[in-house]
């Protein structure tokens, strides 16, 4: 009996070692991609293009695409929302600064950009893998799903934009804000 247990343990050890090495290598490349958002998003765009091409060529898996669209919409809401919702904060007695003497609170996302990117990329990869299994190819009339998703997107974004206007926050910052001093006066003393 002991021989059987030791054989099973020795068979599991190489698999666990390989899994740990793979996880470590994957994390290494994930960490290296962090400071390169443009390259990361271009890679995700390539994965999305491959998925769209696969769905187009197969002419199916519209339910998978619809589920992917709903999931991406959910991620987008988290990406555009503040970590601390001002509506809930107002109920607690705390509020956004309204005077110059109030404390400045920078916009912090509920879902950071890196996690947003990583979740979208994983979602496209999982959806791509699902297109290889016929059980997920449920026959539907895809234009109805597309219209419903568009209506859902418009209504959700309208609500999100109204929330952004009401509480005066902008979830995007393009580059670092730079302050430039006044131009130096010319040192020539000539008068025209």
From TrEMBL:
It is a multi-pass membrane protein. GO terms for biological process: protein retention in ER lumen; retrograde vesicle-mediated transport, Golgi to endoplasmic reticulum. Its main location: membrane. It comes from the Eukaryota. The chain crosses the membrane at residues 63-81, 116-134, 140-157. Keywords: Membrane, Transmembrane, Transmembrane helix. It is found in: Membrane. One of its GO terms (cellular component) is Golgi membrane. The keyword Signal does not apply. Belongs to the RER1 family. Involved in the retrieval of endoplasmic reticulum membrane proteins from the early Golgi compartment. This is Protein RER1. It comes from Rosa chinensis.
